């Protein structure tokens, strides 16, 4: 049984190899969910010893590995596989394998295509995988193999390698049994991380920090507190004032506390920085690391993922480049990056040209070129000295060689035949000026390349500061000399004469130009010779192997970046120990995985940066998850009350978005930054309030269904709504000319795939408009202008699975800057008894809850995801969005319709409709007469300014037989200031026709909370005074119906006919009630 290989966890025991344990499992054991049920125990929050601490992770790790294999083998037909075309036995249990090509490379939606990597666990079988739905009842032949190395293809691309080396325990029957005539290799999992964790749980290396995180009250801790108190503030005067001036108080305190802690000499210490969403966590850590870099403090920086480590390293790299001065042309001078080093998987880290400067593989190639005997600095520097010092003698040698070549008889030489036919013609040779220009440029280019590599990739601690400054000075001198050589009109004979003299004894020339050139030549030579001697004293001997160069790069760097898993490689590197470990996104790293870098030789202090309220590490096994296997060191220490530094100002989210997560997850300890509280911090593209900063849109008629292969869920109703929102956003963005980034988040990959399939490549490579569709995990640490959330689940029982996780919810709703729109089924989410219930109730209480139900067959088709939504296709439909939940009935005057349709800016139209939507909902401004000149203020006419135009409206009496509506809202026109003033005066004069009882009913106000709703009940006698003029009062009005609002935005003049037919029906209903006043 595999359980016999688990080991006791004692230091003296020789641990079993995890790979051998995996290979020992039978199919029955892999599919047995109870295999380790009795051994997996809950992982404690505190431990009595290091042995107990390490041992508590052994069986949860085995169970997690088993569960990962089981999950893959249940979906074999979807896994990457290839047919084996070559299988040659090598050393003991080692085989050289060659396959034809990999099928099913795109495994799960949202994941990168598969490529063979060391540590991959393969299943060798005689059955074609796409014919086997699952291996739980498989009767064919099979065996495990582990990839030990990759052999590059003939084109040198190992990305989809078809040749690799594996380790496997196979019987001879594999080569003799006819049943194994066809062999297929199936990728199951990559076990590198688990294998490295396993090895570290049995290693018992440097335990300084490990013991610190186990003990709760030690003498060392008291001594360190005393040490920190005594050193508090010392050395802070040398901090970068510009950098720290950009940090807020909480960020500055966190950085300074960490700098004080690492000065402790009495023992080890752990600092915790909690960075909630948008609080500048990366900026704070980058400032800390930049300070440590300047102090040459050897530090290892780790993170759970390649994406996280690249983001942080790029931020520090940016600070380094910004700190370098520029020359008079605005160009940045040389910057030294030799103290920074990043290593790992280049493809997964997506190393770009900027990041490449500190990436190990690129640095090794550059340094190898620079240290080469034939092309390196030891060749280029003397060559440049010879060019400047001995150029005249070299020119004479050139002439002699050319004359000898031309005088040498060669019957086949075409050139000599031509010369013989022209006896008087003489061979043409380069002038001294041409010769010198060519030699100088060639030597200068090679020297610049080598010096650029030296200054960029070799740490100043090795290169030395004075050499670095001399190289910068030399490059400036060479540039100046080259400009003079190429731009000035020089005489070849005079230049030769000037350069014939010994550079050390400057000879004056009658022409000041040549005197100046001689001076520059002497200055260049002097600096070249100084550098040649100084660099040779550094013993920068040429390295013969890239392995030695890599070790040199590790040794030279003081700030090293890698994933926590990749830090395992440092155990085999000979270098000066690192004393500080910084783990970014520490709350997303399993505690047992953090043990990998914590045990590195020399590590004395650790700084954990993260947020336990966001995504934890992923755990496949429910049994291991329940035992706490996915818990991070950050979370455990926080639970035990370890002090931490909270970054308490968020600069990302509009206050309407940050309200719920701040109050729910962070106990109202997070403040909004001044940038997000500014009124200009918004992007208005679709109608408010539904598409304002924050809204929950109830998709009540959606249906959840299982994804392909029964994995995950999808909801085509929400897919359709997302698609149409994106379409409207794109049109609005295109019309306004504003840049916009949109993110679509769903907890299920099946829904992500459905949305991606729906929109296709419609929004790819569009300048100023980007759309990213990802799962919640894919958006951790990201942010966009607008976020649309598709919650997917829609069932009467309130079953939402892992969507109920509060940390996933927190990440989901904190990615947006300006707008967050959540699509979901209210009934399902409120019945889930999860955080979503509170979210829906909060949205209702704040007036941010909206319905999107199926009132027609057409909309039902939309919600089934089968048809484009005609109403949603126009972002400003009346009944569907703007006026469905209105508390006032709104009517548009003919004048308003005409003026509105003449507007050329969609943005202005959207803003006007947003205002009308708010008015229809009961909102009223604090100042009722905002906008026009006070002399034009009216008792009846209300005026609202929108982008330089003025919307004129009145509250009047509705004469329809609908008891619900008594007061109505009439929109008369939208006009510029001068025309609006005239219109108000005209309306005021004509409103004198209204009877007093009519005016009093129009003035009645009924408030519900802060909203004003319709007032009144029955009607009195006459509403108009006898004999009144009706030039304006008899104007035709249109209700806020779907057809009317569609007509407002339509560019088709034929829509007038549909509008007229609707108005005719209303007029017939109105005529008996109100004389000639027409709607």
Automatic annotation (TrEMBL):
Limits of the DNA2/NAM7 helicase-like C-terminal domain: 630-826
Keyword Hydrolase on this protein?
A: yes
Q: Which GO terms describe its molecular function?
A: ATP binding; helicase activity; hydrolase activity
Q: Where does the source fall among the domains of life?
A: Eukaryota
Which CDD domains does the UniProt record give?
Answer: SF1_C_Upf1
Report keywords, A-Z: ATP-binding, Helicase, Hydrolase, Nucleotide-binding
PANTHER family per UniProt? DNA2/NAM7 HELICASE FAMILY (PTHR10887), P-LOOP CONTAINING NUCLEOSIDE TRIPHOSPHATE HYDROLASES SUPERFAMILY PROTEIN (PTHR10887:SF515)
Name this protein carries in UniProt: Helicase ATP-binding domain-containing protein
Q: Name the source organism.
A: Eucalyptus grandis
Output the lineage of the source organism.
Eukaryota, Viridiplantae, Streptophyta, Embryophyta, Tracheophyta
């Amino acid at each position: 049984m595999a359980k016999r290989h688990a080991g006791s966890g004692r230091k003296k025991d020789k641990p079993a190899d995890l790979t051998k344990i995996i290979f020992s499992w039978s199919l029955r054991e892999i599919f047995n969910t109870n295999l380790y049920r009795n051994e997996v125990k809950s992982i404690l929050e505190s431990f009595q010893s290091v042995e107990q601490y390490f041992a508590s992770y052994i069986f949860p790790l085995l169970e997690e590995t088993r569960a990962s294999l089981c999950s893959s083998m249940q979906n074999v037909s979807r896994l990457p596989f290839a047919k084996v075309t070559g299988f040659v036995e090598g050393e003991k249990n080692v085989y050289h394998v060659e396959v034809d090509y990999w099928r099913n490379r795109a495994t799960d939606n949202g994941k990168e295509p598969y490529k063979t990597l060391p540590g991959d666990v393969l299943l060798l079988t005689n059955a074609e995988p796409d014919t086997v739905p699952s291996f739980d009842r498989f009767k064919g032949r099979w065996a495990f193999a582990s990839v030990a190395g990759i052999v590059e293809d003939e084109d040198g691309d190992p990305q989809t390698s078809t040749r690799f080396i594996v380790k496997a325990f196979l019987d001879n029957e594999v080569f003799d049994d006819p049943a194994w005539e066809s062999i297929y290799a199936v990728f199951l999992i990559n076990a590198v991380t688990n294998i490295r964790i396993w090895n570290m749980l049995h290693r018992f290396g440097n335990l300084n920090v490990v013991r610190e995180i186990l003990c709760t009250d030690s003498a060392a801790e008291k001594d360190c507190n005393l040490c920190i108190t005594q050193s508090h503030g010392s050395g802070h005067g040398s901090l970068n004032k510009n950098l720290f001036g950009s940090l807020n108080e909480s960020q500055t305190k966190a950085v300074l506390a960490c700098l004080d802690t690492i000065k402790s000499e009495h023992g080890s210490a752990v600092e915790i920085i909690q960075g909630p969403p948008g609080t500048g966590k990366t900026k704070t850590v980058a400032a800390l690391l930049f300070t440590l870099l300047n102090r040459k403090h050897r530090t290892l920086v780790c993170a759970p993922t390649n994406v996280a480590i690249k983001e942080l390293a790029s931020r520090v790299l940016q600070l380094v480049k910004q700190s370098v001065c520029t020359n008079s042309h605005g160009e940045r001078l040389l910057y030294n990056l030799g103290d920074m080093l990043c290593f790992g998987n280049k493809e997964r880290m997506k190393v770009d040209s900027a990041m490449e400067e500190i990436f190990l593989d690129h640095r090794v190639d550059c340094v190898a070129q620079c240290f080469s005997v034939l092309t390196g600095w030891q060749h280029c520097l003397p060559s440049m000295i010879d060019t400047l010092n001995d150029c005249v003698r070299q020119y004479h040698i050139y002439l002699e060689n050319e004359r000898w070549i031309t005088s040498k008889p060669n019957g086949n030489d075409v050139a000599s035949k031509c010369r013989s036919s022209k006896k008087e013609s003489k061979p043409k040779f380069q002038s001294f000026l041409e010769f010198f220009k060519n030699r100088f440029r060639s030597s200068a280019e090679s020297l610049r390349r080598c010096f650029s590599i030296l200054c960029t990739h070799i740490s100043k601690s090795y290169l030395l500061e004075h050499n670095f400054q001399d190289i910068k000075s030399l490059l400036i001198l060479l540039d100046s000399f080259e400009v003079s050589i190429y731009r000035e009109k020089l005489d070849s004979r005079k230049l030769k004469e000037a350069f014939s003299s010994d550079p050390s004894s400057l000879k004056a020339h009658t022409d000041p130009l040549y005197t100046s050139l001689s001076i520059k030549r002497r200055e260049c030579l002097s600096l070249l010779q100084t550098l040649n001697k100084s660099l040779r004293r550094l013993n920068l001997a040429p390295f013969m192997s890239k392995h030695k160069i890599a070790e040199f790069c590790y040794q030279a760097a003081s700030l090293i970046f890698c994933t926590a898993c990749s830090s395992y490689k440092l155990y085999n590197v000979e270098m000066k120990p690192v004393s500080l470990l910084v783990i970014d996104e520490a709350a997303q790293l399993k505690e047992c995985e953090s043990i990998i870098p914590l045990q590195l030789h020399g590590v004395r202090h650790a700084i954990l940066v993260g947020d336990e309220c966001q995504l934890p590490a992923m755990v496949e096994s429910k049994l291991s998850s329940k035992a706490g296997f996915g818990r991070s060191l950050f979370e455990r220490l926080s639970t035990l009350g370890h002090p931490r530094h909270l970054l308490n100002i968020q600069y990302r989210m509009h206050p309407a978005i940050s309200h719920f997560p701040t109050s729910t997850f962070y106990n109202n300890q997070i403040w909004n930054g001044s940038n997000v509280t500014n009124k200009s911090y918004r992007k208005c593209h679709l109608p408010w309030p539904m598409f304002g900063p924050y809204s929950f849109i109830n998709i009540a008629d959606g249906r959840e269904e299982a994804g392909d292969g029964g994995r995950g869920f999808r909801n085509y109703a929400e897919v359709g709504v997302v698609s149409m929102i994106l379409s409207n956003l794109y049109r609005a963005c295109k019309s306004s000319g504003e840049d916009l980034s949109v993110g679509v988040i769903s907890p299920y990959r099946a829904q992500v795939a459905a949305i991606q399939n729906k929109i296709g490549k419609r929004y790819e490579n569009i300048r100023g408009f980007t759309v990213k569709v990802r799962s919640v995990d894919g958006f951790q640490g990201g942010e966009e202008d607008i976020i649309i959330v598709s919650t997917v689940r829609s069932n009467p029982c309130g079953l939402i699975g892992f969507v109920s996780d509060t940390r996933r919810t927190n990440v989901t709703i904190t990615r947006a800057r300006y707008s967050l729109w959540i699509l979901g089924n209210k009934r399902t989410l409120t019945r889930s008894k999860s955080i979503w219930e509170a979210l829906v109730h909060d949205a209702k209480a704040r007036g941010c809850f909206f319905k999107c139900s199926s009132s027609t067959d057409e909309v039902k088709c939309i919600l089934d995801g089968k048809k484009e939504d005609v109403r949603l296709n126009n972002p400003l439909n009346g009944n569907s969005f703007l006026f469905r939940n209105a508390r006032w009935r709104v009517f548009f005057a003919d004048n308003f319709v005409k003026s509105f349709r003449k507007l050329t800016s969609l943005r202005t139209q959207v803003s006007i409709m947003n205002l009308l939507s708010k008015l229809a909902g009961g909102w009223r401004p604090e100042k009722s007469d905002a906008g026009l000149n006070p002399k034009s203020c009216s008792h009846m006419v209300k005026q609202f300014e929108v982008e330089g135009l003025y919307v004129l409206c009145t509250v009047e009496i509705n004469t329809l037989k609908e008891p619900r509506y008594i007061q109505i809202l009439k929109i008369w026109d939208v006009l510029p200031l001068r025309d609006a003033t005239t219109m108000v005066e005209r309306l005021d004069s004509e409103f004198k026709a209204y009877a007093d009882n009519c005016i009093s009913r129009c003035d009645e106000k009924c408030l519900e909370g802060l909203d004003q709703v319709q007032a009144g009940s029955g009607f009195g006698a006459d509403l108009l005074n006898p004999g009144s003029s009706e030039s304006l009062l008899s104007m035709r009005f249109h209700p806020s119906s779907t057809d009317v609002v569609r007509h407002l935005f339509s560019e088709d003049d034929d829509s007038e006919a549909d509008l007229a037919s609707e108005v005719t029906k209303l007029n017939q209903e109105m005529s008996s009630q109100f004389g000639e006043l027409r709607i």
